[in-house]
Structure formats: C-alpha cells, structure tokens
Amino acid sequence: MSADDFIVTPWHVEGDIDYDKLIKQFGTEKISSELLERIKKITGEDHFMLRRGIFFSHRELTRILDEYEKGNKFFLYTGRGPSGHTHIGHLVPWMFAKWLQDKFDVNMYFQLTDDEKFYSKPNLTLEETKKFAYENALDFIALGFNPEKTKIIINTKNIKTLYPIAAEVAKKINFSNTKATFGFTNETNIGMIFYTSLQSAPCFIEDKPVLIPLGVDQDPHFRLTRDIAPKIGKQKPALIHNIMIPSLEGPGGKMSASDEKGTIYTTDSPSEVKNKINKHAFSGGQPDIEQHRKLGGNPDIDVSYQYLRIFFEPDDAKLKIIHEDYKSGKLLSGELKAILIEKINSFLAIHQENRKKAKNQIEQFLFEDK
Amino acid sequence: MSADDFIVTPWHVEGDIDYDKLIKQFGTEKISSELLERIKKITGEDHFMLRRGIFFSHRELTRILDEYEKGNKFFLYTGRGPSGHTHIGHLVPWMFAKWLQDKFDVNMYFQLTDDEKFYSKPNLTLEETKKFAYENALDFIALGFNPEKTKIIINTKNIKTLYPIAAEVAKKINFSNTKATFGFTNETNIGMIFYTSLQSAPCFIEDKPVLIPLGVDQDPHFRLTRDIAPKIGKQKPALIHNIMIPSLEGPGGKMSASDEKGTIYTTDSPSEVKNKINKHAFSGGQPDIEQHRKLGGNPDIDVSYQYLRIFFEPDDAKLKIIHEDYKSGKLLSGELKAILIEKINSFLAIHQENRKKAKNQIEQFLFEDK
Hints:
Rossmann fold, 16 helices, about 375 residues, homodimer, seven-stranded mixed beta sheet
C-alpha cells in the first residue's frame, strides 16, 4: 500500500483515509455548506457533528428534505454488527440518529445483525453474537430514543419479517454484483454472500422514504440496495455518512470491538478508561516536555483531541482553546488526555445508569413480527 | 449431448437417464436384494415401489435400519418446491413416505420451499409460490399422514426456526462448493446460492437420525448437507431415491408442474385427465392397428404403462398381464390408455374428496415456530 492508499469495506478498514477521494471512489456527495444551512434552517439547530464534518457525505439527503418540506415524513434506520460490547465509536451515528429523530419526529429502526457477525467471524457462535446483540441494544436504548417511535430488530429474532423482503432483494443480486461490491471470492461462505439482502430489508419495512445515518464503511451495502430498489418498485434509501472513528492507537483504520487495547467500551470502569487512554491513546505531542513546549503538539493526529472533536466536546469555543493550547505547546499530552478522561468518565457515569434502566425498557423497544 | 448423456440437477433434468450410471456419478448405493429383504423383514411388507426399483438407490439406509433395530428411532423428511399445482409425479415419494411412516411409526416433516421457487423462477412472485405451497399442502395431507406425527414447514412462514439452523450450515459452504454441486455461475442470484442451506435445515430439526425419501434430482443438496453435518456436530442425513417420473410426452426429463400439457394435476377433472392422456401420453405402440397387432408395443417407453408400473397398478399379476398383452399386440395403445385413465380417475375421485377435507385439517399439520 502506498502512502495515500486506503481500503474501506464493511468488513475491513485500513490506511489513512482521504475522505475527498473516498467520496469520488464511492460516488457519494459531499455535504455542502448550502446543505448544512438548509438542515440548520429546518431543524433550528447546527449540530456539531455536521458543522465539524464528522458527517461529511450523503446520498440524496436533499430528496429526503424536499419530501419532508412537502409534508411527507421519512423514517430512520441504522444498525450494528454485534461482535462484542459497544464501544464509543459506535455511539457516533446513534447519537446523531437520536438528534435526527428528535428534530424530525420520525420512526427509527435499529438492526442488530447477529447473523452477519456469525458469518464473518470464524470463532463466534450464533449464541454469542445474539448475546452481544442484547448487550448492544441496551446502549442504544440508553441514548434516549423515543420508545413510541423506535424499534430494535435482531436478525435471527425478526427473520420472519426480514426474510420475505430480503428475498425480493436477493433475487435481483447475483454473485458478480457481490464480488464487485464487497470483493467476495469463491471461498466466501454463502451466508456472507446472501447477508447483504438482509441488511437491505429494513429499508423497505415502511412504505416511506428512509434516511440511514451510518459509518461510510457500510455504504457498499446500500449502493447495492439503491441499484435494486427501483427494480422491486421501491424508493432508494438515502444515506448520511460519518467518518471512521480512529482506534485509540491512532489513525489507519477504525475502532474495533474485537481489539480490546485500542477500544473504550461503554461498559468500562473509570479506571479502565483512564488506563487505556494514558497507556494507548496515540499522541500528537513531542517526545519530551521541553520540545513540546517549544514545538507544540499536532491535534490533527492526536487521538485524544480527535475524540473531543468527534464526540466529547460539542462546544466549539472550548474545543478551539484546547486546539490552540495544544498546538502552541501550552497544553501537554498528559493534560489533554486528562481532559478526555474526565469527559468520557462523566459521559459513561450517566450512560451506565441509563444502560441499567434500559434492561427494564428493552421489551417495549423490541420489534415484534406479525 | 450424445445419445447416452443426461443431466440431473435439482433445477434441470434432461436426457434419457441411465440410473446405474447416475449411481456412479452421484456416488450413491444401489438398493440391493439383501437390503430389500431386510426392509421386508422389518416392515412385514414388500412395497411395490421398492420391488419394482422405483426407489432404486440410497445413502446409508442401512445405518438407519441398524439404529432402528437397536431401538433408536429416526424421523422422515421430504418436500416440494411449490411452483404450481401438485402433479401425480410428486405423489410418488409422498406415498412411499406415508408407507414408511405407517410401518416405522415415526415423525414426518414436509418442507414447502416457496422461497426456492421464487428465486429459481423469474416470473413467479413470492405470493404465488406461497399460495401454491398451501395448495400442495392439501395434497400431502390428503394422502393420510398421521396428524399426530406430521408437520408441514413452509419456508417463509417457518423461517424463524429454519434460519438459525441454515446459518450453521451456510457458514461451512462456500461459493465454490455450490458451483461444483449445482453448476452455479457468477450470474446466479444470491437467494439461490444461499437456498441450499435452508433445504438442509430440516435434517437437524430433531436430534435424531433422519431418512429422506426423495427424487434423485434433489440428491445434490443433501450431498452438501452430508459433507457439512460432522463439521457442525450433527449426524449425516440418510436418503432413499426414486427415479424421475416421466412427463406425459415421454422419457427425457421429468414431469414438471409448469408444463401444463405434459402434466396431470391432482386438481384435474375426469375429462381433463382423459383428454390429456389420449392426446399427449407418449405411446410405445405401432403407427397403426395392423402393425400393432403384428409387432406389438413397447411398454418400456410407453408412458401409460410406466405410470401403471410406477404408481397406479400395485398388483404385480395384473401389471404382468398388461405388459404381456401390450407387448404381444393384443392390447392396443388406446386400450392401455383407457386402463390408465380409469385408474387415475378412480384415484383422483378419492384424492379430491380427501383434499377437500384437508382444508379443515391443515391448521393442525402446520409447523409452529417457538
């Protein structure tokens, strides 16, 4: 791989991603300043994840807004592959989805793909991925979604609803399509080959347009769905993409639930968070204090700064001070880490309380097959 | 295709099948006279479909009998792809399965693969295949299966039970395997590619050995299942194969539910049966009566004679007389057809009565997901 090479697929992210290049590669649209203004006008708010380009790209978000302004509501759909406990990277699209639900007052479907993770991870059993699906559902509920308008789909549990829709999609996709889209080979198992049609299914669960906030690595699934939709008489799903959340150990990939060192789980204790960040968070600082004071740090590659920017410091003024102080050398790497640790632990203290309460709420969130 | 070439796959049967060659090609075992004797000894009866080689081949039937004699019961499983109304060719393995259920007093699962026929037939909708599934179920019930021990599975209806089992199988099958087994190509749709794992699933629905009576064209599915079974800690399914039932229009294929002229449906009226046989049943007779009287007919290629042999005349003595009289020229083709028409219409008169009654019984036969 040369310096500016990178790989982004639903099952593998590698390299230093150039998001402008990725937009061209995937054929999506950059979120323009006009579109930002339009969202701000409709919602009355300027979400920091939009403003900061954490959500940077889309497909047909403008159509969703056109319809909305005509009085035609859409619904939201996102999901998670339950290969382990939820980590803070997962919360990015979910938090944003919650904001969208609040602002547009729309239905939300959350898909937990226990089958996908069983197919794609040689060592995971279906019992394990199903157990993680329930654990992940608690984190999702803990974010405060409207229980009247939010349904959680677990693939093996809700397959009776999903399968007939997936079948309509599957009939229109051949092996060549999956090779071209996902890089599948003759050695790929047939569960994986079929699976994309199940990730498509929730797009058509209501007879309304759908908007999907999601990590850009999941875009290939819906590129296929968008090709198929008109062939089965349905509307194409619209997407809004977030960047990949870096691993604690630095850029060049994404945070992964199966890489324990590089990952902060929502179930981590305050001391675990502290240790992980102090030990593993990739620093943009200089090798020693003297040099740092003299040369300053590089916030662009500093993971602690990036986590503040992406998720934990929504206040632009405060973030700006941190940026300037770190760049000038006034703020040391250890101090920057301390800010992040405090932010994460405050967040997790509340989140973990809500997560406990979610155990009593989960039943009302679970989608029931008819 | 040269003269002795033939093709036998679950979705395509063509040519004049040499069953001894097919046994070698598929790697199955011929049902030996010793095995016939053993079955007769256990069941106390000599079923004409065994005696006449309609069921001609097996995989590990001996293991099933060994276990049975040790007191370990097996269960039965067969099925049907609901692409149209039931025709009399379908009834062959079902009638035999009913006999097996009666003699061994075992559970029976009948799978209706509405999804498969949707995937494999470009013009059929899932609503249509599901409708045919219910129609076909009536024919199955009409044959008199034990309602206490018989469950009908409809794939889209019972997917919640089937899918987790299918997933275990699917994880162990790759695209190469399906290419080698079914001749799939890059253009095959991903529903078809995944589907075989759903046909495997009922093999593992009980924790007992399974015996599958089935048309030999379905063997490839279970060849794959037998490869996978030990990898998922399960017993290999045992099989007993029947020959392909020829179309009315003659040898070189099998009767097909989508070829109306060549097919007698269980829903046909007496006059439809009469017309179809008189008009379309391939004859082994001579071009005119004079030559027929002189040279005699060929029962081996005469479809009417074959239907009597395969299904409608269980009495060997009566069949022998028909065979001799036709061969000698004493029995004319029209007369042979008249015998068959009478036999089919007598059978269908009772069957259609039972089929009506089945509408009130169907609920107790339908498998319910937990």
